[in-house]
Amino acid sequence: MVDGILYYLWLVPALPLLGVIVNSAIALFAERPLLLAEAAHGGPSHGPSARGTSAPMIEGHEASHAAPPYRKLVAFVGPAVVGASFVVSLLAFLAMAARPPHDRLFVQVLFPWIQAGTFSAPAAFQLDPLSSVMILVVTGVGFLIHVYSVGYMSHEKAFARYFVYLNLFTFAMLLLVLGSNFLLMFVGWEGVGLCSYLLIGYWYEKKSAADAGKKAFVVNRVGDFGFLVAMFLIFWTFGSVEYTEVFGKIPGLAESGVLTTGIATAITLLLFVGAIGKSAQIPLYVWLPDAMEGPTPVSALIHAATMVTAGVYMVARTNALFLLAPTSMAVVAVVGAATALFSATIGITQNDIKRVLAYSTVSQLGYMFLACGVGAFTAGIFHLMTHAFFKALLFLGSGSVIHALSGEQDMRKMGSLRKHLPITFTTMFIATLAISGIPGMSGFFSKDEILWKSFSSGHGHVGLWLVGVAAAGITAFYMFRLVFLTFFGDSRMEPEVEKHVHESPYSMTVPLMLLAVLSVAGGWIGIPHVLGGHNYFEEWLAPVFAHGAEGAAHGGAHASAALEYLLMAGSVGVALCGIGLAWYLYRVRTEKPKEIADRVPGLYDLVLNKYYVDEIYDVAIVRKIVNGSIWLWEAFDDVFIDGIVNGIAALVKGAGTRTRRLQTGVVGNYAFSLLLGAVILVGFLLWS
User: Fold this and answer.
1) CA 620 to chain centre
2) Are 129 and 544 in contact (CB under 8 A)?
3) Which is nearest to 10 in space by CA: 22, 20, 18?
4) d(Cα 496, Cα 242) in Å, to the nearest integer?
5) Cis peptide before 283 (omega within 30 of 0)
6) For residue 279, which of 311, 316, 349, 547 is within the disulfide window of CB 3.0 to 4.6 Å?
7) 594 CB-side CA count, 13 A
8) What is the DSSP secondary structure assignment for residue 242, as one 8-state letter?
9) Coil, helix or strand for 292?
């Protein structure tokens, strides 16, 4: 009886898709005509132009007008379908938990999808311990973001269109994590890429938003090419793209020599190229900070529950392949560690509250890849889950701040907000403790597990541990810098803005409070053994990561508990030092940051401008591609293609002009032509 719910697994992605259909109908047949009518009568345009220079709207606010009746239906359907999907996901999780560990795999084939020769890819969903965790995160956190959006986007004109995109984003991510084969994963993979473009560029009449959407779309295409080639290699090697068949054949093909280390390395490196793009790692991280141009709830969804976690999920899903490729494992670990440290340093100098959080996301994703690279796949997914809780909370909290300040995002123009926004402050403070890795918070358990494995694993190295600890200290510094600049000190707000500062409505604060609870409690399901706890999370994922667990344990199985305590204390100590430094610079000696910046202006400008990576890419790649495209247009399209088309037209025109001359209108000319034709015809017949 318990297993019965598994046969309704298809409802998990289908419910958000239903929301897409319903809200699309509302957007097309109710919302759009209304917006067009308003525009025709010179009324306010919808959201996009309001983000530009022509309409009086800022993020989270727009000039108030009577709400059309369809908005209540959209506000109900949008979150409700995701909430229902979460309920089904939870029931499916419980059904899976009721099974013995060796039997926690369920594949639901919906229908034959693609069949060509020996190639077959059904439309099927696979539920196992890994995908069951992912769907809970996607639907659970996604539901809270949808609820928050009802309040945050309540004044938006294109309200239904927003929820169409948000529901579609959730559907695509669920398709990605539930798909039973690489092809279905790729469909979801491209789906979240499309949705990121639509949502980042939601205010598409604002140039920076439109550009950010295009940038995200194009940069991700680079990574997607790697994923696509890897998929072809997988089919060529295994004769299938189904997970169960591919992973089931690995031992036999490796033993027979068909699956060599070289082939495994090629496949996994190409897969990782895809992950680098989707999960914003060096060198393809540049799209994610610009994604802040979208509405703040969109940022929360992209950074916490969907999209950027897709790359980590893919690497974790293919762990059996990665473990056959030590070179790939090393590359994943090094890129992850480098990204964690590099992006953390950029976060130090950012003044836009959302950009600080954006670079912290890039850094935290680096931690997840560091974990996967040292064989600690469970730790990577554990951090993915805890990060979803506190990062969604941080973004939604920043949205509450922006909402209260009528759109202001510069932390230098904030201060003293804890008195005005007590719920927002308390919840964001909890999330900041969590991301800083303070003991008792969810982030402590997952981050400490990653740091320990990076030191003790057979795939680890002390250098990776040092980089991870340094990134942890910097993270604690810039996150508490954000808290102190935003909520403490004297008010630096404009007097007119300060007059209207208010706490957000319940539709926004209740999700904050629930996420705050998860930011504390979420880590307690994975208490390290050294602390005398039971790591339920590791036990749950053991059937998926059995070989990975062996790899992570190799070399560290005999490490002493004393050493683990020492390293744990060291990482926490570094984080506390970061917090202390932030307190000293932004609460005690507030003039110091400017003095330090003035003392090293070159270094400060370098970090403030994000190491000029965007500018380098623009000069070295973007402009060359644009100039090359212009040359192709002028030399090939304009001259060759247009030359052929216009040449044929000129030829036909010329022939027509010459033929027209035969039409003189003189009867004698026609008689002569008739006689001449008859003579030629008779001559031809006599000759032949």
Assistant:
1) 26
2) yes
3) 18
4) 60
5) yes
6) 311
7) 4
8) B
9) helix
Q: What are the per-10-residue average pLDDT scores of the chain (688 residues)?
A: 83 97 94 85 50 40 63 94 97 94 92 86 94 96 96 90 96 96 95 94 90 92 94 94 93 90 96 95 92 91 88 95 95 96 95 94 96 94 95 95 90 90 96 95 94 90 95 96 93 84 91 96 88 85 73 52 90 96 93 92 92 90 84 76 84 80 72 84 82
DSSP-assigned letter for residue 416? -
Residue of 454, 431, 682, 435 lying closest to 567 (CA atoms): 454
Answer whether 223's CB lies under 8 Å from 277's CB: yes
Beta bridge partners of 111: 123
Q: Alpha carbon of 206 to those of 57, 64, 78, 202, 216: distances in Å?
A: 12, 20, 25, 9, 16
Q: How far is 154 from 65, CA to CA, in rounded Å?
A: 11
Residue 60 DSSP symbol: T
> Cα–Cα distance between 128 and 418 in angstroms, integer?
43
- Residue 372 contacts by C-beta under 8 Å, 6 or more apart in sequence? 312, 315, 316, 319, 322, 332, 333, 336, 380
**φ and ψ at residue 125, rounded to 5 degrees:** -110, 145
Residue with tokens 């009746």: 69
Is the CB of residue 328 less than 8 Å from the CB of residue 347? no
Tokens of 303: 């950074």
Q: What is the DSSP string of 150-219?
A: HHHTTT-TTHHHHHHHHHHHHHHHHHHHHBSBHHHHHHHHHHHHHHHHHHHTSSTTSHHHHHHHHHHHHH
Give the closest residue to 220 by CA, choosing from 167, 285, 306, 165: 285
Nearest-angstrom CA–CA distance, 249 and 495: 68
Question: Is the Cα torsion angle 206, 210, 215, 217 positive or negative in sign?
Answer: positive
Mean pLDDT of the chain: 89
- DSSP secondary structure code for residue 609 in this structure: T
What is the three-class DSSP state of 414?
Answer: coil
- In one-letter notation, the amino acid at residue 296 is T
